[in-house]
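I can't quite decide. Please look over this sequence plus structure tokens:

:::
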Amino acid sequence: MNRRRFLGAGAALLGAGAVGGLALPATARLLAEARPGRLLSSEVPLPEAFQVPLPVPAVLAPVRSDATADHYEITQRLARLEILPGLRTEAWTYGGSFPGPTLVARSGRAMVVRHRNELPVPSVVHLHGGHTPADSDGYPVDLLLPVGSSGAATSPGSPGSSGSSGDRAAGAAAGHGSGHSMSGMAGMAGMAGMGGMPGADGTGGAADLLRTVTGERTYTYPCQQRAATLWYHDHRMGFTGPGVWRGLAGFHLVRDDEEDALPLPRGERELPLMLADRSFAADGSFAYPAVDAALAVPGVTDDYMNGVLGDVVLVNGAPWPRVEVDRARYRLRVLNASNARLYRLELDPQPSGGDALVQIGGDGGLLEEPIAHDAVEIAPAERFDLVVDFSRYPAGTAVRLMNRFGSGRTEEVMLFEVSSRPVSDDSAVPGRLCTLERLDPAAAVTTRVFGFRRSRNAGWTINNQPYEPGRAIARPALGSTELWRFFSDVHHPVHLHLDAFQVLSRNGHEPGRYDAGWKDTVDLRPAEAVEVLVRFTDYPGTYMVHCHNLEHEDMAMMADFVVE
């Protein structure tokens, strides 16, 4: 769908207006039927599938520990990686690898992570799914400038400082490093063109919110939350899409006693799987359709305004990998770290009797009871914790993980080779995994409505407003429960910072099959309305709600909310 046709259909949908039924006029069905994103074809021959062994990201060891916390250090730096066989790709990395190293936390024990920026661009780190104080949440203009940047007031965030905020007016003359200049607005100038962002010229407004530090920044995660699969990634305003696309993403796992007491697969039979589609230029570099190749102005070219889809499916940074598995149960922690691609994951062949994918957890940790699926649908930023029993297959079976939303090469994801060696397996999936607290709709003190849609004049918006740092769309009280209703024009995976939520309804009916448990990202299909209950706990301050289609996010589909 071209830009003009998209805008015309979008205008028709906005005219429909309903939050509940959202009856679509015929012109708007173009939107409802369109899947997010446009394929960006690589300029290099693609490798054969299932030739590369599955890598497992290394677990990062703390540099020191004390009575209350474990301390870690990560250097963000360029690295030339062999992602496609025989080619080198320059990546932006956490610690020199893609994905970055896995951080493993213990519930109730704080984690302190010091990041050093040796990249040629500023960065922001967000712990996705983390229950985190506002000054460590990764607000998109809390910039960490590269080591050696000049021209900005950096105290107390100079190299070696652990400060999380610095001079709010700093940044107007700050350098990218490596010879690049920075406008100081870190992407706001491009957003101003989509709806008039105050302060984009550095004269006030949004500019006053810039909280930059140079060289190093320390993020503190109290880890007062249950066991879950989280992830950390770049969250710089206007440039989250290219930042994640170029490699700034990694797993962050939280463990606790409740989960440890269950007889779930563990050790080598617990596999984190980060799914990320990418495209490659002729020289092996990551291809990305940025509107400005120097990344001084945010956004992508018109053809990719609904999201960028790659033609190479990477799992843990490897193209269509393979892994040998025992005839035993495996726990697969699946993360969709793609910018815009949706996956419908299914095993081929299916085991006799079906129900191959047994879901034990989601974004916010364990479900109360396992749910057996033939396939799972996973939107960008969602996580599914699955158990697969490979003893249901004969030895020697080659089991493909398929993406039924893909086509051609993107229909395949990876290969499991079922071993013939004799093994023992004492794991199990209990019929009851935990007892979840249920939020009470009657406890909601207010209902808020958030429309995620394309505005004719303002880009991707929430409630018809493009993102402006410092403008709060809601001010919930600390400790309160609220009902938030999200509705969409096209496909939008909606992510809420600070607290996980529970899905109350989808289009006025029961939650969907993939909505169980605590969530922090909910998949809104075209012209859907989803209601969630959220309780705002522990930490006051400014947080965000936004679309996790990263191209939508970079083109202003974000909003602040302030917990008071």
User: Anything to note?
Assistant: The chain is about 5% helix and 35% strand. The domain at 267-418 is CATH 2.60.40.420 (Immunoglobulin-like). Confidence is low (pLDDT under 50) at residues 1-34, 151-208. The chain has three domains: 64-260, 267-418, 441-563.
